[in-house]
Amino acid sequence: MRTLNAANVLLTQMGYASVPLEASEKPADNTQLGTVLASMAYYGYAPSVTMMDRMRRLSAEVLADFWRALDPLLAEITVDNRDISDFVVYKNFPREVLEMSEAEYWVRQIIMYIGFPNEMVTEVADDRDPLTEKLDLKTLEIAPSDPTTMMIDYLVAKRTEMTPREISACHALLENCDQRTFDLSEFGFRANGARFAAYLIDHGEGHRVRTSSATDVLRIALVLSDMDPMMRTKPWFSPFTRAERRSLFALLEGCSDLVEDFARNREVWKRLLSRLHPGDYDVPRVQAAYNELYNGATERFNARLERGFANKDEGVLELLKTRPGIFMRALNQAYKVFGSKAVVAFKDIIHELTVDQLLRTARYLECRDNQLRLIRPSGNWEKSQVIAKTVHFDADAATGLARDLRAEVARRMNAALPEGVDLDPEVITVNLPSNGQEIDVGRGTEIALGDDVRFIRSASYWKMPGHGNVYFDNGWNFFQADWKPMGAVCWNSHQFPFRKGDKPSGAIFSGDPTVSKEMEGRGAQMIDLYLDNLAEQGVAYAVWSIMCFSKKSFNQAEDVVATLQTGVEPQEGKLYEPGRAQISLPVNGDNMTKFVAYIDVARRKLVVMDCALPAVVESANAIPTRKSLQDRMPAFMAYADMQPSIADLFEGVKAGSIPVRKSDKEMAVVGKGYVFKSVNPASKVDPIDISALLALKGDVAEEAVRLRAAS
Fold first, then answer.
1. What is the 8-class DSSP label of residue 378?
2. How far is residue 413's CA from residue 421's CA, in Å, rounded to a whole number?
3. How many CA atoms, within 13 angstroms, populate the side-chain half-sphere of residue 319?
4. CA dist., res. 244 & res. 227, Å (int)
5. What tens digit of pLDDT does each residue of 13-66 get?
6. Which of 474, 632, 647, 676 measures 20 to 30 Å from 117, CA to CA?
7. In angstroms, what is the C-alpha Rg of the chain?
8. Residue range 471-496: average pLDDT?
9. How far is the C-alpha of 133 from the C-alpha of 360, rounded, in Å?
10. pLDDT of residue 92
């Protein structure tokens, strides 16, 4: 990750900074301290009261060293280090574009496409007015004495896939953690454990890995082969070194039920074992399972399940009880075939499901009346299809089971949090994250746009040297309340409404860069949206996308980022002001589309999407792209509605002392609690481990003791 230590970036992203512990006899003066505070505020951050007290005690030299270390970390997580403003075509945007006629805009654009210097048709950058609007600054807290352990614990507990930034941090952390053994059963998401294990095996430390699941070993082998451990693409295995084979066999020999695990993915295991050569090693259990794989008649679990459903054999319920996770996913079908008997059987294994699984099942049952469902084959959003949702549960059965599931969640949560919670009802708008996300909040999470927000500025930036004119286009699609398309703003539709007439602009595009003229292949596009004007023109929804016109995946570029700012005066401040940014993230993946968020214009809400819906990548304004969104967005909203929120997690906990807040702006939070967005410097939050709560299952009392000890 550039030249920065990825672990330090993750620490800052988590809201912590390392501050030297010093009480200088000659601390820095107020001017020096004020300079550092102003620089932090530029990035949208402020120190907590505790951190401020420590900073006041630092000498001028140590304070300067502290800022030299923190500055590039804040620049990285806010993507300010990309200098996005430098690569926008019209530096006096939006004024410079708003003052052009449509003909003038396109004549200038054609001149740039032909290859003439941009400076022939663009203005010299004016000195922009300084930024005067008041910003809500996010609070930074002093890092704990052992940040490595804290970050590793965070990644181990994480219940969704690590992002590329977190994977880099994982590798950096493991370099400095040379004693700890990792049992993959302790990971909140097993594929993350496979990435930890693969790194250790690759560095000759496979003895520090433990697992009892052959599927974990399969995932590790996939990571060692630079493949997706979730098997969303066709698995392929590279040749392994002898050391890697020894490590993988050592793990496999200790796994339970190898025959059944091999039978579950026969072809994949055949492919892997052909690379591992089990006959060359003293691994009798693996060799016996290998022989059964090729010569035995072990029937696969899924085949037994399908036959049981087809024959309406109630024995299939007992089979499902041996795999609680599969029972959860097959619950709807089981109820269709077996009715109330399926519910009775499912209740027998509730204690084996995590809080996360119980909440997701409860939300599915509670949203039974949603008419649409978004099908994503193997989790692939680009191949998503909309179908009519069919929930076989009748209303009473669905309501009753959902109530029982929530009661079980409440029982576990009250055992884990005997102090009780003071619950802010606004956290119902904060959804729990799901897999494949780069934004660290769940799809469907709402970010309120204050009444003073007059414009929204989105941007895409990319760097792809040596490929000529490559484009990662920033675009917005506009829709009526019934999702009827109204138009778009993107590279080939630079203004909305398309022909302005006497209507004020609802959105405007910053010009299309020709990156072949830039030595490092860098370019940026910006779009300004004016909410009041959009509302007057009947726009109900606006959907933001990043798409590669050049049919290159995001992973093929050296760097792609997306940012979204909100503000009051569009001509104030730099074109990109990190302190105004609501979203700033690197965009990764083997896909060519990213739908980052949408705006509910009437409710003035920014809603997180973070998924790769299908589209024609040539333009957000292409008719197939509009049609794809028209069809899928209602189903996406139904999907988002089914995702459990922070409120769902805590609502059954008795009233008490632990604050659970969306924001601490109005009241500081001191001590144990949860704050979605901390902006109060007086807060000193001892954050609740949400991942640990979501992982609760089994013996609640034992889990509660473990949680309290861990905290």
1. G
2. 10
3. 17
4. 16
5. 999 999 998 888 899 999 999 999 999 999 999 999 999 999 999 999 999 999
6. 474
7. 27
8. 97
9. 41
10. 96
Preceding omega of 497 cis (within 30 degrees of 0): yes
Asked whether the beta carbons of 545 and 620 are under 8 A apart, the reply is yes
Please choose, from the candidates 452, 500, 485, 517, the residue with its C-alpha nearest in 3D space to the C-alpha of residue 627.
485
Distance CA(605)–CA(599), nearest Å, equals 6
Least confident segment among 39-53, 419-433, 488-502, 537-551: 488-502
Q: Report whether 541 contacts 599 (CB < 8 A).
A: yes
Amino acid in position 414: N
Are 334 and 317 a contacting pair, CB within 8 Å? Answer: yes
Closest CA to 218 of 268, 170, 287, 161: 268
Closest of 289, 250, 15 to residue 144, by C-alpha: 15
- Amino acid at residue number 624: P
CA nearest to 462, candidates 471, 475, 454: 471
CA 394 to chain CA mean position, Å = 34
Structure confidence by residue, pLDDT tens digits, 611-642: 999 999 999 999 999 999 999 999 999 999 99
Tokens for 499?
Answer: 């022909």
Whether the per-residue pLDDT at 1 is higher than 50: the answer is no
Instruction: Please give the Cα distance from 529 to 652 (Å, whole number).
Output: 40
Distance (Å, whole) CA 436 – CA 178:
29
Tokens of 456: 């929204």
Strand extents, DSSP E, 371-454: 372-375, 385-388, 421-423, 446-448
Residues 618, 622: Cα–Cα separation, whole Å: 7
Which pLDDT score is estimated for 177?
82
Which single residue is written with the structure tokens 């089990």? Answer: 278
Q: What angle do CA 348, 353, 359 make, to 5 degrees?
A: 110
Residues 421, 656 contacting (CB under 8 angstroms) = yes
- Percentage of the residues of the chain whose pLDDT score is greater than 70: 96
Q: Given a cut of 70, is residue 2 above it in pLDDT?
A: no
- Encoded tokens for 694: 């979501």
Parallel, antiparallel or unpaired: strands 485-489 and 472-479:
antiparallel
Q: In this structure, how many other beta carbons lie within 10 angstroms of the beta carbon of residue 2?
A: 10
Q: How distant is the alpha carbon of residue 237 from its chain centre?
A: 28
Nearest Cα to 269, choosing from 305, 293, 295? Answer: 293
Q: What is the mean pLDDT of the chain?
A: 93
**CA–CA separation, 669 vs 659, rounded Å?**
7
Measured CA to CA in angstroms, residue 341 lies from 90, 314, 618 at distances of: 66, 9, 52
**Cα(378)–Cα(39) distance, integer angstroms:** 45
Beta strands in 587-652 (DSSP E): 593-600, 605-611
Alpha carbon distances (Å) from 277 to 115, 131, 290, 471: 57, 65, 10, 46
Vertex 467: Cα angle to 528 and 574 (nearest 5): 30
State the pLDDT at residue 45: 97
| Strand, helix or coil for residue 433 | coil
**Type of residue numbered 30:** N
E strands in 555-708: 559-567, 581-586, 593-600, 605-611, 658-663, 670-677, 684-687
Which tokens sit at 180? 């700890």
- Secondary structure (3-state) at 576: coil
Under the banding of pLDDT at 50, 70 and 90, the label for residue 300 is confident
